[in-house]
Every structure is written in structure tokens, then in C-alpha cells.
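User: Batch of two.

Assistant: Item 1 of 2:
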Amino acid sequence: MLKSLKYIIYFFCGYIAYGQQIEISGTVKSNDGGFVPHANVVINNTSSSENINYGYTDEKGSFSIEIPSEIQTITINISAIGYQEKTVFIQLNNNYNIEIYLEERVTQLQEVIVEVKKNEDILDLDINNMSLRKESTLREILDKTEGIIMGEEGTISYQGKQINKILINSKEVFINQNKVALDNLDYEIMDKVQIIDNYKDKFTLDFDRIRDPVINIDTKSEFKGILKTEVSVGYGFKNKYSLLGKGFFFSDEFNSFVTTHTNNTGKKEFSQQDVLSSVTNYATTTLEKTFQSFFIDNVQTKKNFVSNSNLTFRWQGDKSKTGIVVYHGNIHTEQEINYNTFIADTLIEKSYSENIEKGNFVSATANYNYFISSSTVLQNNLNALIMKSKKNEVSMDTLLIPDQNYFMQQNLNTPKDIAISNVMKLTHMLGDSAIFDLDMDYYYENFSRDYKTQLSNIEAPDIFQEESFSKSFFSTQGNFKFRLEKSALNIGVNSTNNIEFGKLYSRSNSNNTDLKRNVSTIGIPFYLSGGVKKFDYKISISPTLIFKEQSGNRRFLKMSHSLTYNIESQNKLGLGYSHNYKFYNLNSLYDTIVKDYNHIIINQNESNLEKFSTNDELALSWFNNNVARSKSLHIIYRYNRKQDFLQSVLDSISNNRFFYSNRIFDNKQTHTLNTGAKKGFYVGKVYHRLTIGGNFNLKYSSYPTIVNNVEALAEVNSWNPEAKITFAPRNFFMSEMGNRFEWSELSFNLDGKETNKQSVFTNTFSIKGFGDKVSWNLDFIYRKYNTNDEIFDVPDTHLEFKYDLSEKLSFSIKGQSLLTLFNLNNYSFINTVSDGNTVIQTKTSNNLGYLILYTSIKF
């Protein structure tokens, strides 16, 4: 073991001496002398047949790839869409500049000659040289890919553009289902993984040349046209269990995917962004908040039962395609939390709360696309979801202002929500350069809740509130689209109507509120997109007339623009600007809203019903990704300004009650900076890989608020630097070893004076290994918390070990927070958030550590 440790240290410290690189550069041309851009270039060592490095050509057909200096002979494989593949043998000497010529290729399909576009942006990922286990997921593959930025919720961005489609064998299977695909598609089934930029769906008729990217996965032949399933059953320490099943069938026309997971470890399979994607444009803030508990992975709980199931069917033929997606979720969560509430630097309340939440939801989406004729396409997307939950809270509150008082209260909240949406689009080609489409969108939402709060240690009347809310939205838009020489022009007319009804009824008093909002709009959307030399641009303007039932009409100019400078194919500068508006959430405007027995919101300005806030955002970005040199860099800056924004502020404390109001304030400004960089090196004679990277995130917000009836400037600062180093040796007992340092700090200031602060330092050391039958992973985690009142640290560890008895049967053991599980540390978790003019600090000692033995069977 000592000898192995010395070997590791030797390569960590000596990689410079053994990691000298030389640069192989060259140009790829066609037989007629033209440049071949975006060709894939793969370099192999002739002595070992191992892949050394790979890259692609730029707009002028040039490539430049680094390889270890001690290699004498190589082969270079060149492949490009529209050309015949070519491999050349190179004897390295003093001349490392190479010129390669390719022969053009055309493909004949059913008597129609189709020449593939040479400028299509396709990046093939070198998955066979990523040190992957067969159970490594798509998430792990993309995490190792330069230029990809991912979020825990399943967000994927590439070169600053969002990815919301994952194709299987060039067919759309996962649409707005990123998290399901990221966590359930394994390397074992993959033959090729590609990122296709500016992807166009064959059922979409338009002239746009700038589109979002997609991910395409070509499966191995043994996974095509065959039903594959896997079931894992696990049981472990302290009655923790997990039942996981998934199955898929991928073919040329029909594709299906099923996953189900029932556990009491708090593991959730879905993301809110994916499930609500079909209604996001129209859903209320209330719906989004009531759904959050179904999607947040929260291990800081005492009990957390989760059951998630997803069913996906996709069928695609020559003239039509159909998709059905169904989600079901069920939760039962129990949690104990301590709350400290501050206004400025004054502690005004301490609470201990025991929460029990139960709920379930069902969501179903059906989409249909059909070529009515060769020039007419019908697209329809229907979505429905229903949610019901019950939250029971028992809290012991100590009010410290003006005098110390103690209360014990019980709260019961039972929200229900139903939403239905339908989006229909009819597109007709008027000629080679003109298109007309008609869009009709409908959305309906119905929300209701019963709320009861009562004191159990003091004689006082119970408080009951019943709320009902409905929203109906209808939109119609007609567009004419024209293909110009180097751009596409869209112009049309849009009309919308939004009707909302809200009623809040209090059985304990006469504070009842009936609200109605009826708003219609007429707009003239104008959209121009195209490219000039190395610049891509999008200009979107929509002059809008807003008709309000009570307070008259208003004009507004909606805008959304972007400009991209393509320095190279993977090196881009971006500039974006948007200007939009949003009406206040009607559920926030009732006269009297009871948050709990001692916290009440009083609103008195009914004119806010037809007012709205405006939002301006400016974005600057730089994405520089070079696969050949194993490096990536991104810098994203955003400036956001909200005018006339709604804020809940604590107004007064009277009779042991906190009285809030939702007020409109002038201006809230937010600056965010997100940067990241990564560089890979090959070290040693057998090309061990060393990767060094880091991220830096900064956010600063400033806004006016009210403190002690005096206006004050609130400032919230958060910054999060992170550094990571990973060492992946070849021909060794481990496949990867890495260490990640992360610092997270949040501070809250009033009029320039710091009132609250929290910082968390996290260090994670990971080591992985795998062989023919065995794979394992160890994480050692150390966290140190520092708040205004206390400093403490929490060490912990995670474990994963798997043994494949055969191709179909395997056993594994998985453990999370093992030191906490066996009471070997003093676990605690703290989080601080700002809310209006108050700061709330939450603390809990709950943790869902587990140690589970699994049996997995493949069919």
C-alpha cells in the first residue's frame, strides 16, 4: 500500500517533468482545395493503438492538438460530414505541420441525392477515453466534457444555450426530461454521444439558422429493438430501503422508457423544471411554490418517504410523431427545525418546529405532430396535472420583542391545485421563402386551500381561512415568416386574455376578500435573426397595448435581443438584453393573509391589482472551449433590474403578533458573475490524466426596504469560489482521485452596516476504481460552519461498492453520511436567507444517513 501511495505522489509532483507536450497542427482540405471546417481529428499511438488526444478543425480547416513529446509515430483519423473518412500514418520529426485532403461524399436515399451540410455543428464526445464504468451515467459523462454547464435540477447549457432535448438514435425521446435522462442513461448502452448545435426538428417549418443544441446518443446494436429492464432491491441499517426499477425499448420508430423509485432515503428522480415545463409560461407563483416539496432533495429530514414513477412513449413515422409522458410523485416528510428571525441585527423571534408533510401529484403530457401535406404541419401539446398535499406543523415560539412571551401553536395547511394547458400550432409553407403559422394557447389553473391555526397553551380563538383561486388564459397569434438572403424575418399579430378570480374567506372574522383581474393585450411581434460574417444576431420587439378592466390602458414595448461573435466554432462572445413585465401574484394581494397565529399580512392598496413590475436584464458572456487541448473557460455576467417590485416587509409588532404588508418598492438591482475554467494534462509515459479546474460565483443584490418605519438600503452579498483537482491514472488499482475545495459566504447589510453573516467551507476528497467485475467509490467530506453566534465543523463520508456476479446479477452496498448514521460526529446544518427586511436562520440536526445492501437483476 505504501509503495502504491509513493507511486501516486510521484506522479502528482513530477507531472511537469514527464508531461512535456508537443503540438501537432495541420489543415484539412477538400480535393478542390477548399477548407473543411468542423472535422473530427483523432490521434492514436501506433505502438499501443491507444487514443492519445482528439479535436476538430476550425472554420479554416485548421487543427492544433497537444500530445506527449516522447511519441515517435502516430496515426491521424479524420472524419467529417459530407466527406469520406481518412486515416494517415505520421512519422514525427521536426515538422509537425500536416496537410490532409478528403474526398467528398454524397448519399443516395430513395432516388433523392442528399448532400449533408458541411457547417452543421456536431461535437463527438470521446466517451471511450473518459475512465467510465459501465454504470456511469450521462450526468458523469457531461461533467467530464469541456463546455458543458450542468445544474443539480437537470439544467444543461452548452456555449450559453440551453439543452432541453436528448435524442436516442437521432429520434427525440427525452423532451424536457433532462434529469430523468441524466441519472438513468448508462454508459453501458452507449456507442456514441454527440452534441448537435443548431438542431432542427423535421416537423418544424421555419427559416431560423440559430437554434438550441441537443444531445444525441447512438446505442450499441445489442440495445436496439430489444426490451431491457433492471430491478434493484435494497434494505439496510435502521430499516432504510430502496426499490428501483427501469426499463427501455429503443427502435427506429417506437421508443419507450420507464423508471420507478420508492425509498425512504429522500432520493427524488424528477426536477420541477422538467415536470412543469409545459405550463411554466403561464403558471402562477403559487403553483410553483406548492410543488417545490416534491422535487427538492432534502437529506436534512427525520423521515423522508418518496415514490416517483415516470412513463415515456414516443412514436415517430414519416408523416407524424406522437409522445406521451406521465409522472407520479408521492412524499411523506418529517422534519425538526429551529428558526431564528432577525430584523437588522436584532433577534426578534426563536422557534422550534416539527413539520409533517404528505402529498402526491400526477402529471400527463401528450403531444402530436402531423404533416397534413408536404407544406403544412400541425403540432399540438396537451398537459394536465393535479396536486394535493397536507402539511401539519407544531411550533414552540419565543417572541423577544417587545417583551419575551412563549407560545405553542398548531397549523394545518391543505393545498390543492389543478392545471390544464393546450398549445396548438398550424404551420403552412406559402412558397420557398414564406411561411404562415397560427398559434393558439390555452391555460387553466384552479387552486384551493384550507388553513387552520390555533394556540395550545393559551386560551384564544382558532383562526380558519379558506382560499380559492382560478385563472383562465387564452392566446392567439398569427405569424408571417420570410426567408431573406442572410436572415429570417417574422412579423405577426398577437392577442391574449387573462381572467383571474380569487377569494379568501375567514371563518373567524369578517376579513373576507374577493378579487378579480381581467387583462387583455394586443401586440405586434417583430423578430429578425441571421448572421453577418462572424456575427449571429436575434432582434425581437413586440409593441403591446394592455387593456385593464378598472385602471385604463397602458402601452409596453417588450424586447429580447442577442448578439454573438463567433471567434471560432467553440470560442464565442455573447451579448443579450431583455425587457418585459409581470403582474403581481393575485394571491399576495388579499386584505388579510394569515401566515400563522402570530404572523399576519395586512394589505390596504387595492390598486395594486392591475399594476405590474418591469424587468430588465443585460447579459455578457464568453465561452471558450478547446477539446483538443482539454481546456474550457466561461465567464457569464448578468445585470438585472426590477422596477415596482413587490416585497413583504415587517411593519409592526403588536399584542404579540407580527404584522407584515406587501408593498411596492421602486428598484431592485442584482449583479451575478459566474466563471469557470478547466484544463487537462497528460503526464507520465502511460498518459495519466491530471485535470485542474475551478469556479467562482458572485451575487450582489441591493433594494430599498423598511426598518422601524424608516426606509433603508438592504444589500445581500454571496460569493462562492471553488477549486477542483482530479488525477486519473492508467493501469492502476484506482481510476480516479480528486479533491474539491468550496467556500460559500452570505452577508446581509442595512445602510452599509453588516447585520448577519454565514460562511461554510467544504472539502471533498473522492477516490474511485473499477475492474471487470468490481467498482467502488469513496467520498470524505469535511464542512465548517461560521455564523454570527457559533463555529462548528461536521466530517462525514459516503461509500459505494458494487460486484457483478454475472452480466445479469450484481450486488452492491451504498452508504451516505455514515459518520452521522453511526453517531460518530455531531451533525448539524445551518442555512441563512433574507426575506424582505428580515433575515431567517434555520438550523437542524436531522440527517438521512443510510447504509443499504442492494441486489440488482437485469432482464
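Item 2 of 2:
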Amino acid sequence: MRVYEAEGLVGLCDAKSRSGNRTRRIGLEELAIIGPIVEGYAHPLRPSQKIIYERVESAFEDANKARESQGLTPLVMPSRETIRQEIRKLDPFHTVLARMGQEAARKKFAPVGIGLQVKRPLERVEIDEWTIDLISLFAKSGILEHLTKEEKELLGLNKKKIRWILTVAICAATRCIVAMRLSRSASKNSAVQTLEMITQDKGIWADTFGAISPWNMGGPPELIVTDNGSSFISVAMRTAMQDLGIRAERCPTGFPQMRARIERLFGTMSSSLMPLLSGRTFSDVITKGDADPEDGAALTPEELSEALVRWVVDVYHNRPHEGLDGETPANCWNRLVETYGVQPAPDMRRRRLVFGTRTTRTVTAKGIRVFGVRYHSEPLARWFVHAPEREVEVRWHRDDIGAIEVNFDGEWHEVPSVFEEVRGVHAEVWHGAVRALRASFRDEAESSRPVGASRRNPWNAGTLEWSHNVPEEQWGVRSIPFITSRYPLWDQPQIVERMDAGRFYLSDTKYGYRETIVTSVLDARPQHVQRITGPAWITMMAAAFTGGAFIFPTFSMYVPAIISGAFAIVCVLYWLWTTTAQVPEEPTSDVGLGLRLPRYASGPNAPGWWAVWITMLGDATAFTSLVFGFFFYWTASPDFPPTGADHAGGAALVAAAVLLSLSWLATRSAKATNRHGNVRQARILLAVGMACTAAGGAGLYLAVADLAPTSHAYPAIVCALAVWLGAHLGLGLIAQGYSLARSLAGHTTPIYDADLTNTTLLWHFIVVQALITSAVIGLLPGWMT
């Protein structure tokens, strides 16, 4: 009562909460054992709490055994909860840093403030690339099982994994998507095209795909933020931004939070786009089931683009956004544009200079021709009269072929077309009109033919050769088609029209060469572009002289045979020098359908390498026949080799074998040295190889010089083997000299080394023949007798 009267109701509270022994039971000795082991929890191997407890338990057992031997009191083993509490006392940041790494620690403990503050539309635009795995995307949505084989081939879904690159730009202030490009690979072109799309009103895309809402978000941005991808740091991208007066900011690698808006957008697309792909946009594909593919719409890249555009314009832009406090991106754009406005889009001339396709043309008295359209102006005509050099830089833009930009007198000048009809015409519209006009002329020509004249595919055949007019047209195609079956004319509708329109591979050649595509052997996958020769007399002459070298000896006309062989070698070398293994103007070429292929190949990827390999295999069968003949005579004749017969000189033959082996080693080393960039050393090795080849050939001659091939079958077949090897040594010496000359002329480099690679392959066969021949004519006769 006294406490109650003195302190009030507080005095009635008991003190049971302070009862019990609260002193720590673990002493300093126990802590000394526990501490280092518990600190081991913060380790990159990420041991579990159970493992830490077992380590503590083992340490205490060892300590107590030592104390027992000393007559000391054993230490108290701490409980699992005690160990868990000690682990929880570790510094959280350093624990996560040690166990999970710097990136995980930074993400978990980074302080979050109010974030980046942007007020104006296009004040900050973030651009990034998203890799779409269409195999997973379509498989999860159920679309994949409804696609035909042809549709999968068209989208590239026949592979185990196919990726499309989606380049997206987002306005940081409004969260509006201001540009989006879908491509098969990340490149500087896709980045520059995305930049151009940012500056434009994209209503034409929304209208084309039937979107309900407008896509009017566009204009030159103030700042563009990207990562350090090669497409974003390319010269073309940096030049375009500089020409438009746009500042650039590149975030360091590994910090996606510095581009949080674009990174979050990709997550939204990944989770929200799936229902759209399996819904209205592709409903015709889903519902067609087992129906005839020709009766239903085929899934094309255009339809995939339609799904993306309609999701952006009709779904994403009109969905309340958490980062905008529930306001939709479209409403936020309209509100901020009304308040702050945006810069006007660049006019056509500026777009032509900044984003136009760059090429060169030669000015003539008729002006400049691009796409079959002539361009001329008075300033260009005045310059043409006095200019010593007529080649100029040209830039044109696909949206308007009514004018081009030409650089002369150190300035860019707008040169209009001489035809007013093409002013403001899109390049695709012009191409379509030209194709339609040519088709109408072709149809008129077809209708005016005699009844018996040949027409294209009169029998409605299914194989590819019937895609041509025969025999009137030259054998060739406008573009190399991509076929998916044995009968493409039946199984791929409109394949002929697409071939004629140049919608497949190699529809045009940038440098005016005759080119084709080399594919893999089994599945015909494109590997590289092969430059091929046109009609020429040199190949006919080489064939004629080669035939003479083999035909004349049958009539004992050896001098004409030698002359024919020499001329054949000269013709072949001239043909090889002028037409094969040329260093390309650029490493790769755009061959169409979004595919870029190398313009040069060496080793097993090159047709020349396989030509040498197959030729040597055929050659090896003839050599095997000669060796078999040697053993046949030995088994069939009891006097083979005959008693007292002269044999090939042993010392000279051994020296020849050693020298030829050194020649092979020098050639092989020259190839490896050249690839490492030591061109001068490679040339020296080739010269050393040639010297060894010549010396080895001389040793081979000395080894058989004393034999009389007409006296017996034994010296005859020995000399035949020696002559066979000598002929190949001459071929190998010519190949070594040719490779050395190509290197000296700059046609063989550390990267472009097809000639040296083929020579090395040839010498693999030669050295094997040399060693076998040396063993057969140098070692076996002594063993046989």
C-alpha cells in the first residue's frame, strides 16, 4: 500500500520480468573457439549454419580432449541456438559481400532515394536491347505446336535456339516507348534506325497494324542513355547523335539500375506480351489446327511486329503506371507536352544527311543515277564541267527519293530528281511500281509468243529448276531462295514471285562481282559468300593444254606433252592469281533476310580446301596402285628383285626423305607463323621449304639415276614410283612459290590465308607419299632379298 500510495498504479506492477540469471554462460575461452569458426560463415563457399555448428562441435571436442589431458575442467559446448545467434551478430553487408559477391551486396543494401527527377518529355531517353528467345516464347504460349514446318523455317524456329534483338527506347519522364526496332542481330544500323524512329511521329506504324490509339510520341531528345554495347558506341551512332545535337551518356557495365526504366520495361514486356501472342493477334494461327496451311494465315515476322506495336500502343501506353502515380504513359505525355512542348522533328533534308544511306556515284553529263532515277541540278552541272574527279559521295533516304544529297566543292548540296513524279515517293513504293511495270511487260511478252514457245513451268512441276523461263533466259535467279522441301514450287506459295522480287539471299551485289553462297554439306546452312568468275578464255585454254599433256604421251609425242603441261600450269596459275582468294573489301556482307556472312573463307570452310583434299584422295588411289604393283611383282615372281640387281641409292634416298620432311615442316610452320602475324618469318620459311624441296628432288634423282628401267620390271617400277614422287615434288614446289608470291603481293595476310592453307594441305599428302616411296624403294628390297 505504501508503494501504491507513493507511485500510484505503477507501484502495483511486479518485477518478475527481471527475474532469472541473465549473465552470459559462455566464457572467454569458449568465445575464442567460436569466433573464428563463426566468421567462416562469411565465405564464398557459402557454408550452412549446420556446417558451422558441426565445425564448432568438432573444435570443442578437440579442446576438451586437450584440457582433459591437462587435468582442466571441460568447456561447455554451446547450443545450436547460441551458434545461430552468433552468426546473426556478423556484419550483414560483409556477410552477403563474402558469400554472394559485390553485385548481390550492392543490390541488397543500396540505399533507395527519390530516384532520378525528370520533368520534360524527351529530357532523358533510355535505349537498350532485349534478346528474345522465340523458341521459349512460342513454346510456352502454345503457338509452336500449331506452326507448319514452312512457318518455322521462315521465323528461324527450326534451330534449337533462335534469338531476335528488340531495340527499345523509352522516355524517362512519361514512360512512353518512343522507338522500337526488331532485328535478327544487334548492329549499328538497328541502333541508328532506332534513333531516327525516336525523332518521328510513329502514327504510320500504328495505322498500318490497326492500332486504336495514336503513337504520336516523338522528337529529338535532349539526352540518350545507353550501355556500352558495340551498336551504341559505334561511329555511326555517335555521329548521328552529334549531328542532331543530342547529348550521350553511357552507363558502366553491370549497373542496370542506372537505366532502371528501360530494364523494368523489358520485365513488363516479358510478363505481359505472352497473353497477346496467344490471343487476338495470332488467333488465326492457333485455331487453324490441322487445316490446309494455305487456307489460314501464316505466322510471319510482320505479324510478330504487329503484336509488339499493338501491345505498346493499345495496351502499355493506356495502362496505369505505378511510376507515374497511376497515370497512363499516354496521358502523361499529352500533359507534359502541353506544358513544356517538344522540339520539332528534323526535316527531310536533315534526315537525309543524318540517317540517309551512304554510297558513291560517278557524275556524268546526265547527272547521277540512283535506283534508276536521274538526279541533276545547275550547281552539279557547273561543278561537273571543271571537276577532274567525277566520283562523289551521295546520301539518299528511303522515305523520299525525290532528291538526294551530293557532296562536291566541300559542301553537301541537295540535288532533285529530273522527274517530278518521284517527289515525296517512298523507295519501297517506287520499287513496287517498277516491279509491277516489269511484270506487266513480261506478261505482254508472254501473251505475244507463238503457241509452241516455251513458258515458265508449263507442266506445273514442283522442283526449283522450273522457276525459270527456258531456254530464253540465262540460267540464274534474281535472288537465291530459301527452300524447305524437295518440291518448293508446290510447298512454298509465291516463292517464284519472291525470288523475282529479290526477297531472298543475294538479291544484289554491292561491288558488282558474281557471287554465290557456300553452305554446309549436310543441312545447307549458309556459311560464307563465295566470289566466282564469269566466262573467260583462260579456263578453256587451261583445260585444252591439260588435255594435251595427257593425250600426247599416248602417241609417244613427249615434247608436245611437256609444252602443253607447261602452258597448262601457266594458265592455271594466272586463273588462280586473278580470280581466287581475293582479299575482300569488307569482312562480311549483308546477304538478305537479316543475315550477314563472311566474304572470305580458308581451311575446311573453303571450297578450294576441299578441292585439294578430294583431288589428293583421287591421287592417292593411283599412288596406292603403284605401291600395290611393287608388292604384286614380289609375290608373283620368285626373282623379284632379281639377284645382283642395282638398287636405289640408300644415302641419297635418306637425304631426300629428310629434306622433304623438312620442307613439309617449313611449310606447316609458315602457315602457323603467318597466322600469328609474323609475315616476314613466314616468307623466310616458305623460301627455306622451296630450297629443301629442290634439294630433296635432286637427292631423289641421284638415288635412281643408275637404274635401267628397261632391263627388268623391278627397276621399272622403282623408277615409276620415283617419277611419280618427282612430279608431285614439282607441284609442291610450284605451290610453295605461288604462296610466297601471293604473300609478297599482299594477297595473303594473317587473316586471309587460303592459298597458304591449301599449300600446307597439299604438302601433307606429298610428305606421306615421300616417306612411303622412300621405304618401298629403299628399305623393302633389302628385306625381300
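The first helix runs from residue 2 to 7.
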